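User: Good morning. I'm curious how adenosine-5'-triphosphate would be positioned relative to this chain. Could you predict the structure with it bound?
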Amino acid sequence: MQPRALSFAVLNHKGGSCKSTTAVNLAGAMAERGLRALVIDLDPQGAASYWLCGEGPHRTTPGTGVSARVIATAAPGVDLLPASPADEARADSGAGLEEDGWAFSAGDLSSLLEQGPWDVAIADCPPTLGARTRLALAVTRELLVPVEAHVLAVRGLAQLFTAMVRLDCGPRAGGHTVRVVACRVDRRKRLSGEVLEILRARLGPQLLQTVIRENVQLAEAPSFHAPITRYAPGSPGASDYRKLAEELLAAHGRGAPE
Ligand SMILES: Nc1ncnc2c1ncn2[C@@H]1O[C@H](COP(=O)(O)OP(=O)(O)OP(=O)(O)O)[C@@H](O)[C@H]1O
Ligand SMILES: [Mg+2]
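Assistant: Good morning! Here's the predicted structure, ligand included:
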């Protein structure tokens, strides 16, 4: 990776908390700014792989080296390290999901990132805090925690942070910067506003200014195998993920496109 490369683990133990949506579309928005992005799909269900490449190209035979498995996607500047079919088979069988390791070790992944051409790596984690999530933490510097803007999801945050401390990756442990992004915000609903206030009070500067609005085009985009910035470039979702990329880059003193 480039010396000033960025790396994020998109993590939340709660299922359906907008992790894959955030990983894919943040990568799309970063690429649109001229950065080369790698999405690392660590979820055996392969949602990010399907989103970017459909059912076909990522179903290569597992066992080849990690760099040989990286594929270009139809979105310029976005590459994918897909979930492996073997992973998915294990997920389907329900067997030992968390203890099965992954096709590659943290060492394999770290050298891939060090040697590869990417400006930003974004790991999409499964909804658990097990082996794969630990792997993501081992190879990235920052945690990006998407939270759905409803009360139950906010209650889960305290649990998440406690669990992360146990994994030795709490907000101040392990040198990771932790940032939370509120997703599926619907400003027409009072509840969304109240939840944002709660998040702001609880998280302070860890809560990113950017919020991702509820936007049906984000839910449609996976079927078209493109990040929102390409599937619906004028949509609220595209605009929000562009803002997210901008805010994260600005936090690193990198405002302008490279
Ligand atoms: N801003 C949004 N507006 C509308 N729908 C959204 C938005 N963000 C995510 N969704 C929808 O919410 C659902 C969950 O999103 P996503 O798959 O990204 O979550 P996840 O955390 O990756 O889930 P899992 O834990 O199963 O991996 C999906 O159906 C997705 O289309
Ligand atoms: Mg997911």
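Residues 6-251 form a domain with the Rossmann fold fold (CATH 3.40.50.300). The first helix runs from residue 19 to 32.
Let me know if you'd like a different ligand tried.
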